[in-house]
Specification:
homodimer; 483 residues; BirA Bifunctional Protein, domain 2; Rossmann fold; Translation Initiation Factor IF3; five-stranded mixed beta barrel; five-stranded mixed sheet; 14 helices; ligase (chains A, B); proline-tRNA ligase activity (chains A, B); nucleotide-binding (chains A, B)
Chain lengths: 483, 483
């Protein structure tokens, strides 16, 4: 809350990110567990809204809401070899309750397939039970060995996980596509974060999945932030857990399953990074922790200004807006600076002369424009300017995003792009036999292959040779550094 | 979902409780961790609403929303001797991350004072920062040695915890009283569960607290279910954690703190137990997982019935109601029986002739009355009957509750009351010197002293002698068996 200047978002985004988290009181890293952090109201209010939008969308698609235990028996994990291999290096183990050693070690959930599938085996009996769509809002725990960074990578994070079962592979795949539509509707449509949907290469699949898809956002500085992933688990996993149903032909069959995992706390990182500027944060109107701040001007000379401000606060609160009235003893200029840094979309200024004219000044955080509005048209103005602000943030983000995607025809060209953008290039194979070329790219450029697009037919560049081995390219892939 | 009859709520409430949880699909106990359970959509939807009401009330009172890590370093715990003594027998310990032994054991939060206070020491600087009101919605973990029972006592449960700091003891006590008002407004006002607020005896305080207050609900069968507790932590705890502020007189002082803990999953047990009947569950309209079910009648003869039902479903969903349309191939009678058991407040029946008359039949779960309503007055009718149902459940619960409180003048009389009600009696002292008499009562009657009332001045019975030792009684106390 002090007056020190923020590092520049344009030229020093890394430090800007670290500083804004502290200055805007989004989260406090001074907690005694490495990689864990205390989320403060300014981020929690926003993330609660983000949960609401995701959950409403999933419910509309027929997902039902469960609460599963955070503790998962080790024996559940051990049923599926790839899964245990993928997750055990990252599991927090509970081995003791009070003074007693537990009979079986319990994993603090790193993900919940094993817990959900164990119950699916009890609940799913008939084809009439399918499709079976479930989700839970939960925290997950991973003993990260990589460097942690607030919101981007921490040892406890906040997500939603869906687990669904279907009669056919086609239906399951359809659900994967719908998951990606949810991502688009919510992450882009509401939060204003553009993404590309990739199918991940074979070497980058979720432990135990058949196919993995992921949406990638990219910061204006050119680093990828992974958004929700969705997985075709197929039949192997449900088989291991004994999930089966009697079909209409009386035969016993195994369903096809999928899962989808929007990590709310990581998407929050994209909200911070995508919409920020040199002044601080910006939030889309729908998810802003506070949507409006009222600043009384010269109230020490005209006490009625405060009465008016309070009256307006009440009116707008009743309408359901999230609103703040700043009555601290700071000067108006300081207050402006502070709430702009916090990213409040709209500011209403009320001074002594406004009491007579019944007009207020409204400031918009994105355009930095001030307009004069009539008191009796205030709701319409808030609605209009709030909507315009969100649309403007989206448009701006999309424009930046599109400018970050560049074609590359050689490893040198990839090297030039990676770090400031995402390179689009020809590649031999995203199956296992392409892994050597992928490793070369990572070693030479520092970028990772994000995958192939499933939303468009992506045409090969020029003669269509793999940028590494020169053999016939089968795919266009995208390469970037990630967080 | 099968057709077997429920055990009687009136004569066999224990079995009724176990069965209804399974039959109504509130929670599944077949999960592989003892004392943990999987909450299913029918309880989750209700508990989400319960969270909403509590959180809205707390926010209105100025509490801000935090998310703290679930893992608490052992060193935080060890700072306060009573607290560690009180909680360590119940702590789940994380000792390993992946293959590595952690440098310090981490407690899976059994409660979060130590985590909150550690951060308070960083955040609270000046008297201007006070009052400082915070809360989080979280899961807590306790390695219970007592027998667990779904919703009533489990090893993972769902709660809200508030942690607040004040300048004076009076302000802190005022906040305790406001917490109890929140309990009344939400637990009684919305959920329809009557409670009495007690100050707990000295031997029953929260580990580390100065004074402990608790609201007790009581089932129609006479067993207490503890509702939210609130604690005057006073200054000792903040001192231990170095929480201090500079007052307006420039002196450094220690704030007084309080905490309040509504356990949502346990309050849910009271909703089940208080409002149930021989047919199954009943929910207040505001927190019902589904508020209305639409049952099409004879749709096989008149397909337009389904169109009408769907049209109505959409209209009501748009209005924000939680609503179900049952298009399964069961007979209407079976559907009635099923949704009554599930506790849906209102049922709308639509048959072929209703399409012409534009009138529907509406059934109310509490009164079991059917009324005929005009299609164009459906919203008003839902609002009116929903409100009446909630009021009726409240009134009925309060009447039962009042009938359960009985005066007792001897240990024998207490013995007769305990188990079917709550005994009100004279008692020598709720300070440490009364503990022997309390133990006698518990041994002889199986009931526990719940405490003294703080909401009314409770007059001693007759000559005012302690029911156990015969010495001068200083208090009226209440005795009951609890869950």
């Amino acid at each position: 809350m002090n007056g020190e200047k923020l590092p520049s978002y344009d030229t020093n985004p890394g430090e800007w990110y670290t500083e804004i988290i502290q200055k805007a009181e989004l989260a406090d890293i001074r907690y005694g567990v490495k990689g864990a952090l205390v989320f403060q109201p300014w981020s929690v209010e926003c993330m609660e809204k983000m949960y609401d939008y995701f959950e409403a969308d999933l419910k509309k698609r027929g997902h039902k809401n469960y609460w599963y235990p955070a503790l998962i028996p080790e024996s559940y994990f051990q049923k599926e070899a790839e899964h245990i291999k993928g997750f055990t290096p990252e599991v927090f183990w509970v081995e003791r309750g009070g003074e007693e050693k537990l009979e079986e070690r319990l994993a603090l959930r790193p993900t919940s397939e094993t817990a959900f599938y164990t119950m699916f085996a009890q609940w799913i009996r008939s084809y009439k039970d399918l499709p079976f769509r479930t989700y839970q809002r939960a925290n997950v725990y991973r003993y990260e060995t990589k460097a942690t960074r607030p919101f981007l990578r921490s040892r406890e994070f906040y997500w939603i996980e869906t687990h669904c079962a279907f009669r056919t592979k086609e239906e399951a795949y359809q659900n994967v596509l719908e998951d990606m539509e949810t991502t688009k509707r919510v992450v882009y449509g509401i939060f204003g974060i553009p993404t590309i949907v990739f199918e991940r290469p074979a070497w980058d699949k979720f432990a135990g999945a058949g196919r993995t898809f992921g949406a990638d956002a990219i910061t204006p500085q050119g680093r990828v932030v992974q958004q929700p992933s969705t997985h075709m688990i197929n039949q192997h996993f449900p088989k291991v857990f004994g999930v089966k149903y009697t079909d209409s032909d009386e035969k016993e069959k195994t369903p096809y399953t999928t899962c989808y995992g929007p990590a709310i706390s990581r998407i929050m990182a994209s909200v911070i990074l995508t919409h920020g500027d040199n002044k601080g944060l910006k939030f889309p109107f729908e998810i802003a922790p506070k949507q409006i701040v009222i600043i009384p001007i010269l109230a020490e000379k005209e006490p009625k200004v405060i009465d008016k401000a309070k009256e307006l606060l009440e009116t707008l609160e009743e309408k359901g807006y999230r609103i703040e009235l700043d009555t601290t003893d700071k000067r108006p200029g300081e207050k402006f600076y502070f709430w702009e840094m916090k990213g409040v979309p709209l500011r209403i200024e009320i001074g002594p002369k406004d009491l007579k004219t019944k007009k207020f000044t409204m400031y918009r955080r994105d355009t930095e424009e001030k307009t004069t509005i009539n008191e009796n048209e205030i709701i319409e103005n808030i609605e209009k300017q709030g909507k315009e602000l969100s649309e403007n943030l989206k448009k701006k983000a999309m424009k930046t995003f599109n400018g970050l995607i560049k074609d590359a025809k050689s490893i040198d060209e990839i090297k030039k792009i990676v770090g400031t953008g995402i390179a689009r290039t020809n590649f031999c194979s995203v199956e296992k036999d392409g892994v050597n070329c992928a490793e070369t790219i990572e070693k030479e450029t520092g970028g990772k292959i994000r995958g192939t697009r499933i939303d468009i037919e992506d045409k090969l560049i020029d003669e269509g040779k793999c940028v590494v081995c020169g053999k016939k390219a089968n795919h266009v892939v995208y390469i970037a550094k990630d967080y």
